[in-house]
Amino acid sequence: MKKRTRPLKEVVSSEEKLEESKSSVPKSPDQVPVIVERSSRCDLPEIEEKNIGQTRNTVEDSSGGAEPNVLEPVELSPPLPALPMVTMDGEQLLGIFQRLIESQTEQTALMREGMEDVTMGGAQLPGIFQRLLESYTEQTTLMRESMLDVCRAARVTPQLKVGSAMDFKELGPLEFYGTEGILYADEWLENVERLMKIVRIPDDLKVETASIQLFDIARIWFKDEPELAVPNLTWETFKELFKKKFFSEVARDALQDQFERLEQGNLTVDEYAAEFDRLSHFVEYMTGAPEVRARRFRRGLSQEIRLYVTSIARTYEEILKVAQGVEWDLGRRPKRGRGY
């Protein structure tokens, strides 16, 4: 295969042009200012004049013995680790975006410098590309940080709306007049407390909100009771005073006697359990005593069911479950009524 050669006339013309360009360039490379103009094909920021000094080499003739520039392999950075989910404030985000802008500007300058270096021989390309790689890695990290924070902010649970007395009234809470008795008083207290929790009444407004449903004797007590006139009255204190007033000792003793006489009789197991729970709520020795509660419930069961329960179950829940099963197996269909 023949080697293609340039015509002698073109070679002489090229040498003359090279001599003319050398005569017009200052001898000292340190004094060569390079001005990069805005490209008409891309909208990149202007780069100020730079003194290239000794950072570029001229292309030497191959006959001069100069070794060709060989790009050394650039070690790639490892994959970025997973970033922690942290929330940053506005100033931190502004700082990240400012660093992103600076990183973009630096990358643009490095790209321009690399393009200029190619025309001068490419001696500085490995270092330039290494700096570019580091800059891109930093920029990627900054972008991930900002994106994670934006996503975290988007997932913030909105603050729940605080309920008002009007919201409470719309749920139809029970009214209390003060003459209904201890059982209804306990039911009223449980009802208003549950509804205030549903509409999210603040703790400092619970007493005032619940008092809306007090009428007649109960309203007079609320207005005239000195212990209720203290500032910042808590809901727990209100409940204690309410029970002290409307859960009288006489009523408590009557319920305790009723509880002691309670037996299943003609009641179903479920009916007996419901009455047992209602009355045991007012018996002090039943509070915090699961073993005593279980023995008392088992003792009140009908004899035919109690025989099966005694040797199997130990806790109140176990006894109730076994009793329900035995009742079903026996095909027991008792008449409804109260057995005390």
From TrEMBL:
It holds the Pfam family Retrotrans_gag. InterPro entries: Retrotrans_gag_dom (IPR005162). Residues 1-32, 50-71 are annotated as: Disordered. Residues 52-61 have a biased composition (Polar residues). Residues 210-302 form the Retrotransposon gag domain. It comes from the Eukaryota. Residues 7-22 have a biased composition (Basic and acidic residues). This is Retrotransposon gag domain-containing protein. It comes from Iris pallida.
